[in-house]
């Protein structure tokens, strides 16, 4: 009820101004002694049935915040206090870049969706490193989403991901290779099998050097687009699985505009939110079946409720992420979803969230 009133105010503001206002509020919150602990006591849902372990990492619950909110890695301690099981920052590129021209973010309230064409606006990995060194690491896992600068040719794109991985390796618990945003021209071409094979080879080679240097093996996940054909998705997953990528995030935003009703429906950019829900669930199920459940999946796309999350978990997702849902449901979304998940586990007489993974695949 409180957030519905605040949302009516925020939704009257330009979306990026509202986001900037939110970021400033989170910075104030995390700089106030004791405030993040207080929020965590309000928002956290602590129950052993929600704990999930993947890649040797313990996730206190399966509900994470996707990349795109904390683009510069400056407010993740505050976000961690909102009850999430993990937080992902970025997308971060080697050099700072301003992103695409304004306006570039649009709300579609009739569709419970967003369209963005942000273009990886961020302060670069060196600035992120300074922030990660300065801020206290939260008690939950931290993911770092990596991209390439828009003016880096695809032929040498691996060097951008290698730079990001090398610079930020000590600070993340897992890393995401973002080759599926529709807002950087030509980026999705890196999903083509030949390009993907070389890209993964180069990145995993750098990871091997970093494992030796830091004596820590950190998982690397690949984030895929929902606009791939089933055949192309199959090829990508087979390559990733054979090359021992640690996991898949399904999915990024879509270019599809089917069955929308909002005035901004024809804006260019990636569509996220409710219209993406079924497509991303179908992708999760296909990946789970293809890999026989042996390649962990993070499910993202159109998750607003515990039922939405549970559907993706039963389709094969070990963990899920929200973004657009938080814009519409508010900062308590992780708490709500986790409480709803516990009720669904009880209904199905399951003793842990892991028991539900893949039941409907």
TrEMBL record:
Cofactor comment: Binds 1 FMN per subunit.
Involved pathway(s): Pyrimidine metabolism; UMP biosynthesis via de novo pathway; orotate from (S)-dihydroorotate (NAD(+) route): step 1/1; Pyrimidine metabolism; UMP biosynthesis via de novo pathway; orotate from (S)-dihydroorotate (quinone route): step 1/1
Family to which this protein belongs: Belongs to the dihydroorotate dehydrogenase family. Type 2 subfamily.
Subunit structure: Monomer.
Record-given protein name: Dihydroorotate dehydrogenase (quinone)
A biological-process GO annotation: 'de novo' UMP biosynthetic process
Annotated EC: 1.3.5.2
Species this chain originates from: Hazenella coriacea
């Amino acid at each position: 009820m409180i957030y519905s009133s605040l949302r009516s105010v925020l939704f009257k503001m330009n979306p990026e101004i509202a986001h900037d206002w939110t970021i400033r509020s989170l910075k104030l919150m995390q700089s106030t002694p004791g405030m993040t602990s207080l929020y965590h006591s309000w928002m956290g849902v602590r129950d052993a049935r929600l704990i999930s372990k993947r890649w040797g990492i313990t996730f206190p619950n399966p509900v994470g915040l996707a990349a795109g909110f904390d683009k510069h890695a400056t407010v993740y301690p505050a976000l961690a206090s909102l009850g999430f099981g993990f937080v992902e920052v970025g997308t971060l590129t080697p050099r700072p870049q301003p992103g695409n021209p304004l306006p570039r973010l649009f709300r579609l309230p009739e569709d419970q969706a967003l369209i963005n064409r942000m273009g990886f606006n961020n302060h670069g990995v060196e600035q992120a490193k300074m922030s990660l060194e300065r801020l206290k690491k939260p008690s939950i896992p931290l993911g770092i989403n990596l991209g390439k600068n828009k003016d880096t040719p695809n032929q040498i794109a691996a060097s951008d991901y290698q730079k990001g991985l090398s610079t930020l390796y000590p600070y993340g618990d897992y890393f995401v290779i973002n080759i599926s945003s529709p807002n950087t021209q030509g980026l999705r071409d890196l999903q083509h099998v030949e390009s993907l094979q070389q890209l993964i080879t180069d990145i995993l080679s750098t990871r091997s050097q970093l494992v030796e240097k830091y004596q820590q093996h950190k998982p690397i996940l690949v984030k895929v687009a929902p606009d791939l054909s089933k055949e192309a998705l199959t090829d990508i997953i087979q390559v990733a699985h054979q090359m021992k990528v640690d996991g898949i995030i399904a999915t990024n935003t879509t270019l599809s505009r089917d069955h929308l009703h909002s005035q901004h429906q024809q804006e260019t950019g990636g569509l996220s939110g409710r219209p993406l829900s079924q497509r991303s669930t179908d992708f999760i199920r296909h990946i789970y079946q293809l890999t026989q459940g042996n390649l962990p999946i993070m499910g993202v796309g159109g998750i607003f409720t515990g039922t939405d999350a549970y559907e993706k978990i039963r389709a094969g997702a070990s963990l899920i992420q929200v973004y657009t849902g938080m814009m519409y449901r508010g900062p308590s979304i992780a708490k709500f979803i986790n409480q709803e998940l516990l009720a669904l586990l009880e209904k199905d007489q399951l003793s842990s969230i892991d028991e539900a993974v893949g039941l409907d695949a």
